[in-house]
Specification:
The protein is of the alpha/beta class. It is globular. The two termini are about 35 Å apart.
């Protein structure tokens, strides 16, 4: 197995190879938000310097990218090179292993960006290919491939999803007036960008306060986007979600998951009514009504969610930051100032020292009319 590309390789060949892997990475990105619990994978098959097959993981995680690419390549796959963004699977699940599909199709060489951390696959897929006489090249565009599947990797290794915290504020960090008015701080273009964020995540989460005050649908309302596979999550320790709200009334069409605690009050009757509306409820056995955010994330991960977009208020944002659970910040800012009596986007964190602050690195800055969007990742 080749794990380090030679610096003496022909530059022209490397450029062609990186172009094909770049195309495979772009194909993989198409699956983000739709393929959970599987990783988003792209595959490009090349023969005689010509692309003969392309594929990416389809909604729900099946079929796999390699299967789709081989299908489009047909007989042209014999003697070809396959560029794959993640190690091909080597175990039987709902479908046969992709390694066997590549071998049976007569693929001569497989260029892989990154190893699959799943113990059923990690290294085993590449070994199976090599044992069958297929040339294997590992490591091209590894960093880019790992970035695409951060959520999948976190799910396998840390039992939690990749978490994006979305915040929309004034210049001074306020999300609502002292009377609770919040529609709309940012403009229409920014709101459309939020829907694009929802599209690239498996699930959207809010706290019960947001569910009560805003009565949101938490769907992605972009043309051509299918919502039925996207999960909507509410943290609701006191089980306050209204039965006549949008979330409850649409739960049979688009799934809703509510986390609550047993607490001191009897919630059994409301639980039955909510469940009859199609809502799934997870109950943590606790005497108080505060949810443990880390336990919530472990449970979400166990249900196959790899990428979670959080759109909650200040308390939920503070809880995530305090527990070091924010992987990415998507911060929308409007060119307005509300003042100190406005509702803060992040509740108290109790910090006494600057060194204890959560710090981030800006990845991009986009202007939407008068608004701006900063994407930042945790240092």
């Amino acid at each position: 197995m080749k794990t380090n590309r030679s610096k003496n390789d022909n530059n022209a060949v490397d450029l062609v190879c990186s172009t094909h892997m770049g195309a495979a990475l772009n194909l993989a990105r198409r699956g983000l938000g739709n393929v959970w619990p599987n990783p988003a994978v792209g595959c490009v098959i090349v023969k005689n310097n010509r692309v003969v097959g392309r594929g990416w993981t389809k909604p729900g995680g099946r079929p796999h990218a390699e299967t789709e690419a081989l299908k489009s390549a047909g007989r042209e796959a014999v003697g070809s090179t396959a560029y794959v963004t993640l190690e091909p699977c080597n175990h039987f699940g709902k479908t046969p292993p992709c390694t066997e599909a590549l071998i049976c199709a007569g693929v001569k060489k497989v260029v892989v960006a990154s190893l699959d951390p799943d113990e059923r696959a990690s290294g085993k897929g590449l070994k199976r290919l090599e044992d069958a006489g297929v040339i294997v090249d590992l490591g091209m565009a590894r960093s880019e491939a790992n970035t695409i599947n951060q959520g999948y990797f976190l799910s396998v290794k840390n039992f939690r999803p990749f978490i994006t915290l979305k915040i929309a504020t004034t210049l001074d960090g306020k999300i609502a007036t002292r009377n609770g008015e919040s529609e709309w701080i940012t403009g229409e273009i920014s709101r459309k960008a939020v829907h694009k964020l929802r599209e690239s995540h498996d699930a959207v989460m809010v706290g019960s306060g947001t569910a009560l005050i805003d009565n949101p649908s938490l769907t992605c309302r972009l043309p051509g986007v299918e919502n039925t596979h996207k999960l909507r999550v509410v943290l609701d320790g006191r089980l306050r979600v209204p039965e006549n709200g949008v979330l409850a009334q649409t739960a049979k069409e688009i799934p809703v998951l509510i986390f609550t605690v047993s607490g001191s009050k009897d919630k059994s009757e409301k639980i039955k009514r909510l469940e009859s509306l199609g809502i799934t409820i997870v109950i943590f056995e606790k005497n108080d009504e505060r949810l443990n955010i880390k336990d919530v994330m472990t449970e979400i991960s166990s249900r196959g969610i790899t990428r979670l977009l959080v759109e909650g208020g200040g308390s939920l944002a503070a809880s995530l930051l305090a527990n070091d659970l924010v992987d990415e910040l998507a911060w929308f800012r409007a060119p307005s100032i509300m003042g100190d009596d406005g509702l803060s986007s992040i509740a108290k964190l109790g910090l006494d020292k600057l060194e204890n602050m959560a710090t981030f690195s800006r990845q991009s800055l986009t202007i939407f009319g008068d608004d701006s969007l900063e994407i930042l990742t945790r240092k």
